[in-house]
Amino acid sequence: MVRxxxxxxxxxxLLAGLVAGVFAFTVGEPRIxxxxxxxxxxxxxxHGAAAEPESATHGHESGTHEHESGTGGKESGTHEHxxxxxxxxxxxxxxxxxxxxxxxxxxxxALAFAGLRGRVGPRSDAALALAAAGTAxxxxxxxxxxxxxxxxxAVGDPETINTRTLLYLAMIGVGLLSxxxxxxxxxxxxxxxxxxWPAAVLAFVVPVVVASLLLPGVDEVPDGxxxxxxxxxxxxxxxxQLVFWASFGTLFGWFCDRAARAPAPA
Length: 266
Prior knowledge:
Layout: H1 2-57, H2 62-70, H3 74-80, H4 87-116, H5 125-147, H6 161-188, H7 193-214, H8 227-261
Transmembrane segments: 92-114, 126-146, 166-185, 197-218, 238-256
Protein name: Putative cobalt transporter CbtA
Region (Disordered): 43-87
């Protein structure tokens, strides 16, 4: 049975990843193009402003000036020497990335579903699949997003990427730990659903709020960056994950329900 669930999770995860890729390509890529255009315009402005005084006093050394000024920032150097990966290739690779993401998440989800099946949650496999997908989306996506929302490519200091990654992973850990505490609380509280559900929600929210207050914030959005573009990028980023988890949870639940209705072999 575990093998069947694993194969189902991998295939449906791949399909949901491709669906999410279509959403990201259609809705998210235009926002990235806008952010990159702003980054290029800002870089061109900085290079132009830096070149003017140098050319006035050292015009005969202009051949070496570009390389000296390029050490002022890694991103500036990238624009001088051209893109290492074209935007067309990046857009095509988006579907590969979301497909591989779906494969990995689908496999992990299937193994977790096999462990939860019959132990916690709804008795129906279809309802358990939907509940597990919704819980995973809240714990692994929404919780870290609320503390460390996604930023466009033009936003963020490359030198802090490791720190930001660790902080994001820490919030994912908080989300998973809070989920485990909430499930344990729901199973231990007596008095029916009117007592069980508020206790479970409180057990989930309290650790998330405490961690959000204790962990440092990250604010690297440059002054003057369009707030509307930043908001649209973050919403589409969260929307891509919502499309993936909604598609995957629905497909996984539907196949579970279909398997349960199938007649037993003679």
